[in-house]
Sequence to fold (581 residues):
Amino acid sequence: MKPASRSQLKKQGIIMVLLLMSCIATSSLTHGGDYSFGDSLSKNVACLACHGDQPRVGSKNYIEPTNFGHTTHAKFGCTTCHDAISSTHPDGKSIARTTGCGDCHANIIAQYFASIHGDKTTCSGCHNPHTVFSPEEISVSGMNKQCAGCHDNNRIVATHSKWLPQTDLHLGAIACIACHSKAENYVINIYIAKRNYDPDTTLELAGYEELLRRSGSDSLHYLIDRNRDSYISLDELRKFNHDPANKDLYLKAMLTPVKPTHDFQTFDNRWDCSFCHASGPEVMQTSYLSLPQQNGTFQQVAVEKGAAMDALRAMPDFYLMGSTRNGLLNKIGFLIIAGGLVMPVGHGFLRFLSRKNRT
Amino acid sequence: MSTKMIYLQPVPVRIWHWLNAFGIITLCVSGAQIRFPEYITLLGSYRSAIMLHNTAGIVVALSFSLWFIYYKLVANSLADIYIPKGSDLTTGLFRQAVFYFFAYFFGVPNPHHATPGSKFNPLQKSAYLTIMFVLMPFVSLTGILLMNVGPMREIVLLIGGLKLIVAVHFLLACSLTAFLFTHVYLATMGKTPLAYFKPMWTGWEKDEHPEAEQAHFQTRLP
Fold:
């Protein structure tokens, strides 16, 4: 064979490079016809290049990249749900969707649509699929805001105050779904809230940036977790409360279902206050400190067992009558009452024995 | 022995006393259910216990105001009746304690004779001073805070938090319950078991002749 000339080799090289480049380009065409969504490691990058730019796509089509990036949905990639994007996108045409929430969340869908809430709205009425997080990553006030999207707060207060003593107090410390879903196991989530001296002002949780600045470190929980063992002791909670630097903050404890359900309705046993108040001290032993994260979620840090039971200052703003009573105080109270019986019983006995002396 | 009747308990005092008595009993029972709902269900639902406790608390707080207004502003005898005098503290307390815990068992009569101006013996004065000027005001104030946690949240936090207030309220309530047992028992120590109950209902008390009793007191001492 006649050896190739230098110019022929150069042509073959260019062709090889072009072929290689086209292979790389086509290898990323996993969904949506000929439209490129980026490689498998950053499959949402191409979409977010436009949809993460609000001025470019408008608020309706805007996806907040940080929040979305944290969701489980982001791990599956945009095209798992938006699987009918044409090669001509963006062409101004609306995109048909062939997938729905029920494709992955069939059990929840069945549960939800069987509830009295089922004919009111669909999944997206409460959940934005681009910012949907796991229950432990959402604050209770964040959960309740989902309900407040449709349910007027004044009306909620008015309806509950017909039968619920201290309505504001209850509504401010409980997730709506604690009573209006079948979830039955609860924990106490402790949030760092801003102290607002106006009783009419709604709860405002301290944000990530503010707490980071106060912590003086790269991690928020060092603000309370002084010994940095990723575990919050009652002593650390007390120190946080006593620290004058935190006088404009307070620990807000809220009752949260461990595993929320979607069978929304008002259950008969929730009318009975003893559902919570007679649940016994054992139920209220588990607490978490919930700290805001940069991506808009909350991270739970375990708190020493019994935080809700502690008598003094560890959680000064939380007390669930009947269920967070302190055992030591019960014993002291019993001794005081027993002391009151000394006179009738002891003196009464001697009085009986000496009755003849008074006739 | 000659007997005369003295008007010991005016109408406002009797109204206050019985409102207070039934109010505190209601508070003790409903309070017990509120704190121990898994064990005590005497008043039905938890909500009923709360509503009853709140209502009784308001009644007792109002009756406390009636008591204070009557004794301080109308009768103007609050200090005379409730604050122990020097002699009460130096000898009176001891003498009364000796009577209750020793002399009484030998049939010696009560060294204190109640009159409208000196209703209480030195031990009663000390006990009632503590009850009416410490226990009642603080149990009422903590109760008012617990009834209004939302509007009074900043005061609650300033004092030390809900748990501290609940702890104080509970221990004061236990002290009042202890007092209630002692109070009712001591009220049976008259000439007859009901002798001290009647004046609090009718206002009138039999006053046994003081001189005769004094002589009796001297002769029966062991």
In short: The longest strand of chain A covers residues 186-194. Residues 22-41 of chain A have pLDDT under 50 and may be disordered. The first helix of chain A runs from residue 6 to 27.
